[in-house]
């Protein structure tokens, strides 16, 4: 079985602690993405699962087996490295067959597995080429082929798609997802690209500075961020955040910053007088040219094709809204903004933790 | 864009000139070796091609025939019947044994050492390399006297094994340094990929790293071979009956004069084994064996 269980895992390099007690369970067959800014310890965690870094304290188990002190070769895992790490002196076929050659697998079976992997990854025409004769995307597929021929318990990917061009990245993203749907092998995938995380993951693990900030399905994390960091990290353009406080208004509790007041969800747990950050995603700010709403002034207009990103100033705050109608916005135009009340996020200004909407 | 004919001609001229500068001394040396002594020492003119070529010098030095009385100077080698002191055959054999032996041992040691230094972190691994290298900082002549005594006491003086050990010791620091830099060029991810694929440390070294570092290994072997082949000082002091070619050649400078014919003949012949060795390894002397291993 290919579940991965991590308990209170700590990693120290000398005196420097880079992972501070990670708890994570990856269920068998799931696709889990580790997402976080550069240097947060994603690769370190992945490499500890692989056995390439020693465990300072805590436990890692694959299936039922504790693997803390097990050599990488005995863990039955496969890993795709950020830089592919192909064997340059071997042909594509030999690269893929290497692990089976070490296990002294019968030649007929080796051929069968290699051909199977090559057909899945459309590598058949390149089996006798050497890595230097392949394009970046093809090399990437060889690295994947080397992993899947083995039928491992767990796949580990360390940013396999970074450095590919945008189009290829989208294509490979889909291929990896398809592959997972087909093979159903437990996968831990590291990336700092949130689109990759959102599109591929069954579960996203958001990390920062060696701790896990939130674990959840992609949409859950997007819709219900536990704290300010997650809210800011996910989404592009990012969530708008206004700092202010809760006041008692006519229709209930309101958020106030400067002379702007905004409605809050009915049952918000925020308390009157509490200093908070008011968060609203750009697509939840309905923009119109006239009518009621908060008045803002357009500063920059960015048409992306499917939508238009409007940057504006609202009571001295820089704010972004996404409009879907092709209205002729121009800088310095007057803009009316209507936040969708049930999509408002509140964070305590001090603890940065989300305040439940009720 | 096509280069103009002038540019091309100039380019060829310069290349020919440079090649000429390097080839001329060797060619002249080779020429000298087939000249009769009268053509070597003509005080009126420089003899280039108008002489009667002779293989006499090679007959004596490389094939070991005894020296014939030569007509020009009327001198003959006296008395030492059959025992030709100009016979260079045994010195060629000695040189080959020592150079091949020390090259083999050096590269094996250096290969293992450089893999360890490149891949494994242990206490002092940084300083270690400098320490190894410091062995080369002092001129061998400074330690030659104690070395002779030590070799004598160990029974290594005047043996092939002794000379092989001496050359190996001198070569190892450079060889390790060179090979380590080749190994450092291979990303450690390759080792780790191999281990995840199920390779032991040794399999990883043998099946993955070694093939990728072949070019470096060939370069190192050439350097070691050439060093050992031409090394003079240690050979001179550590041997007496075994003579490598460089030492042997000095014995041709005698109290009765320098035998330029023999010197040039043995010298020219000495180029050949090195040349063959380099031809053998040079097809491995290619860069870019790790190309394609990682995304660029
Ligand atoms: N060998 C090491 N010695 C000391 N510190 C290290 C070592 N390797 C990594 N670190 C530190 O551990 C932290 C986590 O590194 P890690 O490589 O896991 O980051 P990452 O999340 O993968 O980042 P990226 O997205 O840039 O790849 C970093 O702050 C890094 O400086
Ligand atoms: Mg990383």
Could you describe the 3D structure shown?
The complex is a heterodimer of chains A (358) and B (296). The longest helix of chain A is centred in the middle third of the chain and has 18 residues, at 166-183. In chain A, β16 (294-303) and β17 (308-314) form a beta hairpin. By secondary structure, chain A is of the alpha+beta class. Chain A has two domains: 4-226, Rossmann fold, CATH 3.40.50; 237-355, Beta Barrel (OB fold (Dihydrolipoamide Acetyltransferase, E2P)), CATH 2.40.50.140. A six-stranded mixed sheet of chain A has the order 6-7-8-3-9-10, with helices on both faces. In chain A, strands 13-12-11-14-20-21 form a six-stranded antiparallel sheet, with no helix packed on it. Chain A contains eight helices and 21 strands. Chain A has helices at 42-50, 92-102, 107-120, 136-148, 166-183, 194-200, 218-223, 228-233, and strands spanning 4-13, 16-26, 31-35, 57-62, 65-66, 77-80, 154-158, 186-191, 203-208, 211-216, 240-249, 252-257, 260-263, 275-280, 285-288, 294-303, 308-314, 317-323, 334-339, 345-348, 354-355. Chain B is globular and about 75 Å long. Helix content of chain B is 64%, strand content 1%. Chain B is mainly alpha-helical and 296 residues long. Chain B has helices at 5-33, 37-40, 56-61, 89-119, 125-134, 144-153, 160-184, 188-196, 201-212, 214-230, 233-238, 245-250, 260-282, and strands at residues 253-254, 257-258. Chains A and B meet through β6, α2 and α4 of A and α8 and α9 of B. Magnesium ion is lined by residues 42-43, 158 of chain A.
């Amino acid at each position: 079985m290919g579940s991965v269980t991590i308990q209170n895992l700590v990693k120290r390099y000398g005196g420097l602690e880079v992972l501070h007690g990670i708890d994570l369970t990856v269920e068998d067959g799931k696709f889990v993405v580790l997402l976080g800014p550069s240097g947060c310890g994603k690769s370190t965690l992945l490499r500890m699962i692989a056995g390439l870094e020693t465990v300072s304290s805590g436990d890692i188990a694959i299936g039922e087996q504790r693997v803390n002190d097990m050599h990488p070769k005995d863990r039955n895992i496969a890993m795709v490295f950020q830089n592919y790490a192909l064997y340059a002196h071997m042909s594509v076929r030999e690269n893929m067959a290497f692990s089976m050659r070490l296990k002294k697998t019968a030649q007929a079976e080796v051929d069968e597995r290699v051909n199977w992997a090559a057909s899945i990854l459309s590598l058949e025409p390149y089996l006798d080429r050497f890595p230097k004769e392949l394009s970046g995307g093809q090399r990437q597929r060889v690295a994947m082929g080397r992993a899947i021929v083995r039928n491992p318990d767990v796949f580990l990917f360390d940013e396999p798609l970074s450095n590919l061009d945008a189009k290829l990245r989208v294509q490979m993203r889909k291929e990896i997802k398809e592959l997972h749907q087909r093979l159903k092998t437990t996968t831990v995938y590291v990336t700092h690209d949130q689109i990759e995380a959102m599109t591929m993951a069954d579960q996203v693990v958001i990390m920062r500075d060696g701790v896990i900030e939130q674990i959840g399905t992609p949409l859950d994390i997007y819709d219900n961020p536990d704290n300010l960091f997650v809210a800011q990290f996910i989404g592009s353009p990012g969530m708008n955040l206004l700092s202010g406080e809760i006041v008692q208004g006519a229709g209930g509790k309101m958020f106030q910053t400067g002379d702007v007041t905004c409605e809050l969800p009915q049952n918000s747990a925020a308390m009157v007088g509490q200093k908070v950050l008011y968060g609203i995603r750009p697509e939840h700010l309905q923009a119109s040219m006239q009518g009621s709403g908060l008045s803002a002034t357009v500063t920059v207009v960015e048409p992306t094709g499917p939508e238009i990103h409007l940057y504006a100033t609202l009571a001295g705050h820089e704010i972004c809204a996404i409009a879907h109608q092709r209205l002729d916005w121009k800088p310095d135009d007057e803009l009316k903004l209507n936040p969708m009340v049930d999509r408002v996020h509140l964070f305590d200004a001090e603890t940065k933790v989300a305040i439940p909407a009720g | 864009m096509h280069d103009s004919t002038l540019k091309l001609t100039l380019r060829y001229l310069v290349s020919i000139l440079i090649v000429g500068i390097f080839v001329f001394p060797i060619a002249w040396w080779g020429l000298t070796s087939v000249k009769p002594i009268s053509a070597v020492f003509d005080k009126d003119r420089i003899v280039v091609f108008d002489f009667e070529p002779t293989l006499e010098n090679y007959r004596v030095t490389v094939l070991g025939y005894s020296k014939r009385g030569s007509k020009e100077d009327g001198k003959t080698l006296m008395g030492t019947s059959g025992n030709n002191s100009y016979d260079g055959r045994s010195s060629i054999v000695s040189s080959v044994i020592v150079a091949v032996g020390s090259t083999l041992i050096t590269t094996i040691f250096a290969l293992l050492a450089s893999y360890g230094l490149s891949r494994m972190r242990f206490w002092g691994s940084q300083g270690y390399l400098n320490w190894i290298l410091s062995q080369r900082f002092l001129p061998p002549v400074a330690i030659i006297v104690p070395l002779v005594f030590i070799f004598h006491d160990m029974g290594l003086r005047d043996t092939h094994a002794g000379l092989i050990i001496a050359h190996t010791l001198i070569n190892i620091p450079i060889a390790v340094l060179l090979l380590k830099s080749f190994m450092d060029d291979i990303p450690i991810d390759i080792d780790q990929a191999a281990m995840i694929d199920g390779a032991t440390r040794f399999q990883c070294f043998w099946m993955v790293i070694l093939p990728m570092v072949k070019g470096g290994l060939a370069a190192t072997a050439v350097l070691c071979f050439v060093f050992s082949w031409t090394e003079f000082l240690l050979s001179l002091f550590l041997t007496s009956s075994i003579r490598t070619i460089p030492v042997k050649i000095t014995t041709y400078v005698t109290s009765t004069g320098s035998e330029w014919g023999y010197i040039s003949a043995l010298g020219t012949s000495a180029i050949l084994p090195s040349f063959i060795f380099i031809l053998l390894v040079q097809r491995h002397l290619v860069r870019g064996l790790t190309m394609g291993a990682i995304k660029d």
